[in-house]
Here is the input.
Amino acid sequence: MKIRVLGCSGGIGAGLRTTSYLIDDDILLDAGTGVGDLTDEEMSKIRHVFLTHSHLDHVTSLPLLVDSIFDHIKEPLVVHAQAATIDVLKTHFFNWDIWPDFAELPTRESAVMTYKAIKPGEIHEISGRTFEVIPVNHIVPTVGYRIVSPKGGVFAFSGDTTTNDTFWAALNAHDRLDLLFVEVAFEDAHLELSKLSRHYCPQLLADDLKKLNHHPSIYLTHFNPGREREEAIYKECLTQLGSKAFKRLAANDTFDL
Ligand SMILES: [Zn+2]
Ligand SMILES: [Zn+2]
Here is the structure.
């Protein structure tokens, strides 16, 4: 199973793309602005989108993606998300005012896009790759995922979250974790803002990583943009995470599990 990072920033700016990962060539995990770097051919190969939550930085490219592949696909694109997330997409994106409702186009019976509601605790299989849906603690209903490759490699993504027990307990319930992408949005000076907006800052992340029984390769993602801020977050992670080795995730990083 290949993972290609299309975007992993908390915002936009020159060279920055928001959260989106391509799994093999047919599954998108979140649909941030990184999707816009894919070619027509790459976009038309995407069959499934798994969303963590409804925030704009994670879904903004979905309406444009569906429009781009409209003429090229024979089977509908399946959007997997919690019911609350699907409601937001229907009400605020695909509502004919912001964008056409592609779940009804060209006809309701042969639509180019369809929704599949998923629930925390469920495990969904797509051609040998399994997605375990894990609830996390963000300002809107949000899930992370534990994804197992056909070869048995295990990748987990936190989605957007702050301090929680659910994600770490779900990962500890299994005996393997190879690769972890976890968010850290703010520097420690914004500890209160991190709690309010339900993101991690380095201190909160360091406290939560102590709950994890595994020793995966850890990649930090979703830094809020701004060179000074990003450098501060990284430096504080070096201090706070201590012996936990980690790297900062970057667009175009690829992984093979
Ligand atoms: Zn969010
Ligand atoms: Zn986000």
